Records
---
Amino acid sequence: MNTSSDIAVQLCGVSFAYNGDGDIDDSPLYDGFDLEMQRGSITAIMGASGSGKSTLGKLLGGELASSSGTVSWARELAPELDHFYIDQDPKKVFFPQQTVRENIAYPPRKRKLNEINGWVDKLLAEFRLTSIASRYPLFTSGGQQSRLALARVLSWKPKCVILDEYLSSLDVNTRELVIANLHRMAAQHGTTIILITHNLTEALKLADRCVILGEKPVKILADISIELPHPRNEQTPGYEAAEDALINALRHGIL
Amino acid sequence: MRCAMESFRKRVPALTIYALLLAAWWLVTAKAWVEPIILPSPKAVGSTIVQMIYKGGLLRDLAVTGGRVCAALVIAVVVGIPIGLFFGYQKRLYEMVEGPLHALRSVPATCLFPLLLIVIGVGEKSIITLAAYPCLLILMVNSATGAGLAEPSRVRQGKILGLSSFRLVTDILFFEALPHITSALRTSVSYALVLVVAVEMFIGVGQDGLGRKIFDYQSGFRIPETYSEIIVTGSLGVGLNLMITLLERRLLRWLPQTMDTARRSG
């Protein structure tokens, strides 16, 4: 049975407002917002700064609670482990007192030890962390810390990850590597990926759908599907056309 | 080899200062600018220390005082840190007791000694209790503060991963609090040493310990012996601090700025 057409998460009439803080405009940021995402899909959420992208990510990840409406996850994705939110600060994710390797081995510790070791070695290799496996994370570079954070989250095989500007903190080479890894996760394990980003290239290289948010209360300004083969680069046929479509939609959103 | 040279070179300024102080001491006594009854010569003090090690029970005094300080610290660590971490985990509860705890911490521990004598009686127990008391509060408050400042995302992740309350405390909160705990430990060592020596000196519980001996020798105008005891007491302080520095380096080896903080406060 093809389950990829199932819905991973459904937002229904979601409302949310930040409380005052001297903000003159205290109208709600979200007021009756609807959105659905398919299981196994890679969705990019885009929009100008302040368009409520991160708020949406936190609502999805359970870091914020909506004041009304529902965020309903499919049953398999319902545990909080299975829709985990990461922002651009990797330090919040790993435990600094554990080595890189221990950090990746910590979450799945309930499984058999030999099973864990193989899985940890694989993740270390995929995220090019093998050479620094025995170092403490705070002694590694920012890019290595970011890769560790994602590898740690993927160690427990979440069914969905929500990445909030996560890729933006990576240097170009690392970003390509992580994009390839994320695509592999989606293709092989059916991992649902929600990518919150202001970066066009990230959306074009990874996502198969791009939702552009704007205005207040937030609504969907454009919902564009990106149907390009993987791995993608600037020479991929149709890349430029997709890029133009996105740029047009974003420009419309800003004006 | 180069590394040894390098570390030696770093120590040159410190060693120079020690040498200058010693030279000044020697000069002052050699020129008889100060009477020997106030300041005996380095040579006299040095030979007294050696004599006292063999005949005067200097090492025994050191062991007695050092033992009391260590006992007080162990009690403070074993009781204070777990309670503090628990308070860091139960923030509501901590908010309720925080005011009284800080008030208690502000009461000079020495004030409580007469009370302790009534409650516990004269002896080792009251000395150790007195020294442990402020250390326990310092460690408790710092553990609670440090644990309370834990990164919320990390705690949330722990909960999502299904960690028990105990594991949340031992695997997350303890390490978040650890930098605060080690600096509290450093303060505690000084407190414990000061209190043990002061109590030995003035309240006269037990006839031994460095504090008691400093007082006794001074009363008998045995000045080189007095200086010897003072120097050994000072060395005990230096030694304890060095131990804390090494412990801190070991416990916080995952935290990059450890070396700098250790050097600054050590």
---
Amino acid sequence: MANDKINEKDSLEIIRSMVTIARREHSAGAAYYYILWGAIVMFFSIATFCCLQFNMLAWQPYTYMLFLVGGILSMIHSKKYDKEEKTASWFDDLYKYVWIAISIGLGLTWAFVGVIGFSNIIPISLLLYGMGAFITGGVIRFYPSLVGGIICFLCVIVSFNVGLALQSLICAFAVLCAHLIPGILMKKSNKLHTYA
Amino acid sequence: MPNELDPLLHSQLRLSVMSLLVSLKEAEFTYLKETTKATAGNLSVQLDKLKEAGYIEIAKSFKNNYPLTKCSITPKGLKAFEQYVTDIKNYLHLD
């Protein structure tokens, strides 16, 4: 690009195109984590449903290994991405602090499962998860994540009224809508959808 | 009567750089060069002009023994950019 003279319409077009390019930068990194953690939580939920429904409770503790795998893959990707990254986005801090807060909330919720009760743990976890998807989707104006968050909230209402096994299945569906599908869409299109 | 457009921003490359930096917290020189498709020399000159005006900050360091230049917009630059966009809209009767 030379430093050519421009007219006013050109100015607006330059601003529009550069802002679109810049927005694409941070969506590429976010898509990986959406897909990874969406898949992990979804498979964990399906595995939990199978353990509960088909009386395979002895296998249930092994399903937690999925989170260990997810943590390792996240760390590897983060290190690789940090090396290659040439930009820092205002949204990086948003993602980081929102999902750290959600993770702490989930950790504390599950730590006190004895107090909260097994029948309430999944709906509360879904609520936190939905909040994360809704907030990040709303702030970055990514419509599929926003809708996924709303679906999570609706699943919370249903979950409070069904048994534990079915709650796990509902959780798998909610995570598919709030994380996996938005992540795949984000990766495919590599651009943000506006809802306004 | 619309305001006169900021001459520092009313130029293709400088406006492109500012538009990118408004959306990003920070960007490396190589990213700006790749995205704007400018030559290194030309981009360097334009960045210096923006820095002299106080619109951007330039931080130089090293990464794996290679020089690293990072740019970010300043509050003054952000205000100037917002004013520029307002003036453009007034000029084009978009408000």
